[in-house]
Write a structure and sequence with these properties.
Elements: H1 3-21, H2 42-49, H3 53-60, H4 69-78, H5 83-94, H6 110-118, E1 124-127, E2 133-136, H7 138-143, H8 157-163, H9 165-170, H10 174-190, H11 196-208, H12 210-215, E3 227-233, E4 237-248, E5 251-260, H13 263-273
Antiparallel strand pairs: 1-2, 1-5, 3-4, 4-5
Helix pairs in contact: 2-3, 2-4, 4-5
C-alpha cells in the first residue's frame, strides 16, 4: 500500500471515529426517531461542512482524494476537532499543518448560545480567540452595543473598545479597561505566533487608534480573570458589575463572560429589558 493510501485510510478512520462520538444535540441537530447510526450520520456531517454526502463518504472510505484546506477546516468545525486534531488532518492530507488559524470560521455550540440567552438579565457574552463577539444576550447588547447589528468586521471587543466613541462613555474607566484588554490580547497572541487573525486585527487597530500605537510598545501582558467593571447607561447612570470568565471546554479559546450586579441594579437592568 502506498504512503498516500495509508494516510487516506488514517484520515478516513479519524473522521469516522469523531463522527461517531458526536450526538445530534452536540451540533444543534434534532435527534429524530429510529436512529440506528452511532453518533452523527454521514449526510449530517456533510451538511454541516457544506460538502456533498458522496464526497464525504469517499473521505471516510479512505479513497485517495485530496480535500482542500478549506474543506478540512469546514470538517474540523463540523466534527468539533480541537487544535491538535485539526493540525493532524492537515498534515495527513497536505503534509504540513496550516500556517495559521485565521481561515477557520469560529463556530459556537448551540448549547452555549442557548446558555447565554438563558442567563438574561445577567449580561453575558462569548468571545473567540481574537475577541470576536460570537454570542451575546439582550442585557449585554443593551449595556454594551448591539453586536449582531454591527458589520461583521466590527463585531470585535477590541475594535469596539478602541474605535467606537460610545465605548468611552459606556466604560467609566475607559483607559484602564482598554489597556487591560490590549494586554489580554497580547497574552493570547503570544500563544498563536504566525496567526494572521491576530496580526491583521493588530494592524487595523494600529491604523485606527493612537492609544494602541502608544500602548503596544509597552509590552503589557494581562491574564484572563474575574473582576469588576463600572459601566454607564443613559437610563441607569453609573453602576458596578462583577464578572467571571469561563473557558468553553470544547473550544478553550472561546471565553464566556457573565456579569452580576447588586439586587437593586439587577432589577433595574431587568426593567430596562422590559
Amino acid at each position: 500500500m502506498s504512503h498516500s493510501a495509508i494516510r487516506a485510510r488514517e484520515l478516513g478512520n479519524l473522521l469516522r471515529s469523531r463522527r461517531e462520538r458526536l450526538q445530534p444535540a452536540d451540533v444543534g441537530l434534532p435527534a429524530g426517531t429510529r436512529r440506528r447510526t452511532r453518533g452523527l450520520r454521514r449526510e449530517e456531517v456533510a451538511q454541516l461542512a457544506a460538502i456533498s454526502p458522496t464526497y464525504y463518504t469517499y473521505l471516510e472510505q479512505g479513497r485517495e482524494v485530496r480535500p482542500s484546506r478549506q474543506v478540512l477546516d469546514a470538517l474540523s468545525a463540523a466534527l468539533r476537532l480541537d487544535a491538535a486534531e485539526r493540525s493532524h488532518v492537515h498534515e495527513l492530507v497536505h503534509g504540513a499543518p496550516p500556517t495559521g488559524t485565521s481561515a477557520v470560521v469560529e463556530s459556537l455550540s448551540p448549547a452555549v448560545v442557548s446558555l447565554v440567552d438563558r442567563l438574561d438579565p445577567c449580561p453575558t457574552y462569548v468571545t473567540g480567540r481574537c475577541w470576536d463577539v460570537l454570542a451575546s444576550n439582550r442585557a449585554a447588547r443593551a449595556l454594551w452595543t448591539d453586536w449582531p447589528a454591527r458589520p461583521p468586521e466590527a463585531r470585535n471587543m477590541l475594535w469596539w473598545m478602541f474605535t467606537d466613541p460610545d465605548a468611552r462613555k459606556v466604560m467609566v474607566d475607559w483607559p484602564g479597561e482598554a489597556s487591560a484588554l490590549l494586554g489580554r490580547f497580547r497574552t493570547a497572541a503570544a500563544r498563536h505566533p504566525g496567526d494572521s487573525g491576530f496580526s491583521t486585527l493588530l494592524d487595523r487597530l494600529h491604523a485606527a487608534s493612537p492609544e494602541v500605537r502608544d500602548w503596544w510598545p509597552q509590552h503589557k501582558v494581562v491574564p484572563l480573570g474575574s473582576g469588576t467593571k463600572r459601566l454607564y447607561h443613559p437610563a441607569l447612570g453609573e453602576f458596578e458589575l462583577r464578572h467571571v470568565v469561563l473557558q468553553v471546554a470544547d473550544a478553550p479559546e472561546q471565553k464566556l463572560v457573565t456579569f452580576t450586579a447588586t439586587d437593586q441594579d439587577q432589577a433595574r437592568i431587568s426593567e430596562l429589558l422590559r
